[in-house]
Design a protein that fits this description.
The protein is α+β, with helices and mostly antiparallel strands. A hairpin with a 2-residue loop joins strand 4 and strand 5. The N terminus is likely disordered. It is globular, with a radius of gyration of 13 Å. Strands 2-3-4-5-6-7-8-9 form an 8-stranded antiparallel barrel.
Amino acid sequence: MKIAVSAAIAALLFSGAVAAQEAKPLTQDEAVAFLKGKDLDGVNPRWSARFNFKDDGALYGAGSAGSDNGTYSIEEGKLCLKWTRRWQSKCGQLVKASNGAVSQVLEDGSAWITFKN
């Protein structure tokens, strides 16, 4: 039951979070303020995880798909995640939807991670 509820919440957060008409790219300063030194919950249609973005660029994540560590960088509002073991490394622009959700959007326009506020 808990998995079904989590999946439903993830689908609601993810759907519409990056509609092109609503999404606003974060500036460099906004992206850094949103991530650096923060613990954030993130969802994807297939998994959910808790991310720890350390001040020094180190990154740790744990969730329904296991755990991994690595590094992150932010350049011009674009977030790049580089994992060391099992998770996929991805880069994408951080965008904020009118509902307040912030998503990492890949070059193909798809949202990879939507972070909960």
